[in-house]
Amino acid sequence: MSTDTILPPGRRGSGRPGVMLSTRVLGALAALAMLAALVFSPRAAAADTNAAGLVVRHGDGRLVYVYVEFTEPELTGMELLTRSGLATEVTTFSGLGSAVCSLDGEGCPSDDCFCQSDDNPSYYWQYLSLTPDGTWNLQMNGPDNRTVRDGDVDGWSWAADDPQLPAISIDEIARLNGVDGQGAGDGAEPRVLAVEVDPSGQVTTRTAQPEEDDGSMPTTYLAFGALLIAAAGVAMVTVLRRRRSGSQA
């Protein structure tokens, strides 16, 4: 009776199992790379970026234009104001939500929110929203009850009567802040940009600048590339070991 050891199929030193395994591993890595390209693609990230605008008019006529990107489908007016980065003091009224007392350094303290309401003229922070036809509508229900979506523009004016807010679209606010196109994110965190314009129309302050694309590869791609190389190295070592084990059996 023969005592020859019968090798399992594919273990006769032909190397084909190793080739098959190598092909499968490389195929899986290629599929993973394609998936990563879609997930980490700047264009894919930018497609989910929304943007809203904020116009703030001070009592001396200064105007602040804020461009706010966000990834949610919508925000409240209060969330938009908070994300603008402008210093804000608020107070809360039961059943009515938040009232803005001071904004960007002008107004009243939160413990005396309408400190100038008894004056003549009576100044307070008026809250408005811009309609598609360029008309400003006073928001009587406050920022907590306002829904802001992609392309919307909100306005705040420290005034006693006429808010004197300019009709300006989100695209115009974007251009003022150096953004070429609404929601043109680069795959990074949503941007918040703002410019201040004096009463003569001159830009006096630019609080932020959009980052320019220098053509370099994002660190996300570099990190994932290193991960793929490491995974490929481990896979090839495994393949070589199995082939060597098969040739020695």
Automatic annotation (TrEMBL):
Keyword Membrane: yes
Key words of the record: Membrane, Signal, Transmembrane, Transmembrane helix
Membrane-crossing segments per the record: 221-240
Range of residues in the leader sequence: 1-46
Domain of life: Bacteria
Name this polypeptide is given: LPXTG-motif cell wall anchor domain protein
